Amino acid sequence: MTLPVPTANAAFLLDGAGIITTWNNACQKLLGFTPAEAILQPLGALLIGTAPEDSGERWRGLAENHGHTNRVLLRHADGSTVKAELALSPQTQADGSTQVWVAAIDNVHTDATPDSVLVGRTPLAAVIDVLPGTVYALNREGRFVLWNRNHERITGYTAEEMGATNALELFDLQTRPLIAESIRRVFENGEEVAIEADVVARNGRETPMVLCGARVDCNGGQYLFGMGVDISARRDQERWLRLRERALHAASNGIVITGIDGRDCPIEYVNPAFERITGYSAEEVIGRDSRFMAAPGMDNNERQRVHEAIVAHKSVNVVFRNMRKDGQLFWNDLSITPVLDEHGTTTHFIGVIMDVTTSKQRTAHLEHEVNHDALTGLANRNLMWDRLEQALHLSQRQKSMAGVVLIDLNNFKNINDSYGHEAGDVVLKVVARRLQASVRDIDTVARMSGDEFVLVLVNQPSLRFTLRMIERLRQSLTQPVSFMHKNIEVGASLGVAVYPHDGVTAAELVRSADVAMYHAKATGRNEIYFFSNDMKTSSEARQRLDYGMAHAIERGELFMLYQPCIDARSGRVSSFEALLRWRHPEQGVLLPSAFLSEAEENGRIVEFGAWVLDQACAFLRDLKQLGVTDVPVTVNVSAREYGQQDFVPGIAARLSAYGLAPDSLQIELREETVIRNPGQVRDLAGQLRELGLTLSIDEFGQGMTDLGFLRELSVGQLKLSREAVRSIADELDAEGGTMARTLIDIGHNLRMPVIGEAVETRAQRDFLTAHGCEVLQGILMSEPVEPDIARELVRDRMPA
């Protein structure tokens, strides 16, 4: 069969029964039947797929579907098949009846018809409804003459309403002039236009869209055919991008984004904070390699870490020094993170720069205050221990000697009593300067506490050299100190210990020097004593002390007191500290300082400590029976005690036996112990934490504990050193509380509550409270009391 001819006029008439009554030439050309062959035949005779016995069912079905186009297969006179669209339209008479039907054949094709012809014949109305955006046509008056379903959905208008709507009505008043001008340009100038505007729906909802249109000539008329695309998602993305850009610009930290170009990372973006921190403008740094600000010869290890991370496309955080544009150094806390594309490939790096120069300076200042005596500026106890350890390591490597000198001023208490504390402070400052002037720069002068000083003498070539240095020092101390036109006589007793003869560890050397100093002081003169083995011989008094300790528990001579710790805000008892006392049959009541050091040395401390824990748990059980379960008891333990294998299991067993919650008991260590046994303390802290107990640090500020180590130990509270509290002289002394204030700030920065102990004066109490010390302990609030009195203090939870 040849390609069907065009079907522009292929139409015929049917009567009410579906019988063909007319047949024009176009129908004959299309299907090959003459009018004589077609007229009076039923419509079913032309439809392939209609059974011969069909009595009009097919016709009635098509008639009922009038107004719609039906896809049908038509029979050709030569026996072939013609694919076409058939539309039936009833012709209504004046009385409303239908006598005639018009049948129109359109879009005729066969299997051989090219796709281009089929697509070209597709009605526009069939295409526009499947397009993703809106499709519309406007006449010159701006009214819609054609639109698709998406247009109805976005505008909210029905088909009837849309036909009566002008395009300008879909926009707000401010946008309408722009739309009108665009429509004018299309019709008058033949321009193609594309604009962004918000289409306002019938219910007021606004939809951002890109609208485009052009003029089309159609059957002698001109129309604007256009399309619209919803850009809500793009607008949201743009809004987020603008927000992120504003955030980058508003960030207080410097932000730099670099690309990757071989070994270099050229800068592509910097924010205003980067310009402020570095002094460089964006124009000056864009395109430069990001390493251009490196400080030559400084922090090479950190820069190597950055290089390795960039090569490996990994994140890294370092702190090093960079140079601003004016050449000034600044500490830069830099975090670098790779930026990946959709394929997981690193395309950029983003760096966040934080200027931590002020923080570094503040930390250095705090470290100096923590490691130095506030009054004299000398090294304090914790720095002394560190310098002594360094001196011993140096002596071990170089096979040389090191010396430790303990110096105790004679009759210093009389100076304070006779001339006042201000005079005592002047004496201490002058003595500090004289000591520093008598030694080399590599040696260390430290103030241990009160009027006690320590010298760490490094790399001593001979004992004679050491003796000459110490004698020069002693002579300088015999010179009087001038105060308020008065000369104050000053003398000192000196004890000397030398490595490796008198000890191989820092603790052994200090202990030996202390023994030698004690013997020098016993003479009552300004003497120098070198330690000797004879000094190790125990005296008869010491032997009697050992014997008494061996039987103190069985004789019932030990007893407990409990000192309240008072909440600085509420004034209520927040906890107790358990304090051991010995009612000696000959010497009366002895404080721990009189016998615990000896007990530590001979091992009795373990037995004493176990007894104290039992007593504290029994006291806590009594409190629990009174209904008081939120007032814990703190027990101070020594290294020898917690060094026992069964120490923590023993605590767990006691808590179970006495029916106590783990948080009712707190274990306290002196900071000096923490410094000397960091590994052992770390293990202890882990076991206590697992058991649920709180770890407390006593005498905080006298040692040189690493602050990060305290955080690692999960310390529950810090007790200020007695020295720090005693330094708070009075309310008018601006410098006296510097050490205490610094230590409190450090504790709070570590997020640990701080207890001020040994509070004896109102000035101390008020100072500590004003500077945020949470808990106070000392004789100003309450002396240590017996258990029954302690129970009364918390029985009714009345303010202490």
UniProtKB/TrEMBL annotation:
This is EAL domain-containing protein. Transmembrane segments: none annotated. Residues 1-39, 120-190, 245-288 form the PAS domain. Pfam families: EAL (PF00563), GGDEF (PF00990), PAS (PF00989), PAS_9 (PF13426). PANTHER family: BIOFILM ARCHITECTURE MAINTENANCE PROTEIN MBAA, DIGUANYLATE CYCLASE DGCP. Residues 316-368 form the PAC domain. Residues 542-798 form the EAL domain. InterPro entries: Biofilm_reg_signaling (IPR052155), EAL_dom (IPR001633), EAL_sf (IPR035919), GGDEF_dom (IPR000160), Nucleotide_cyclase (IPR029787), PAC (IPR001610), PAS (IPR000014), PAS-assoc_C (IPR000700). Residues 400-533 form the GGDEF domain.
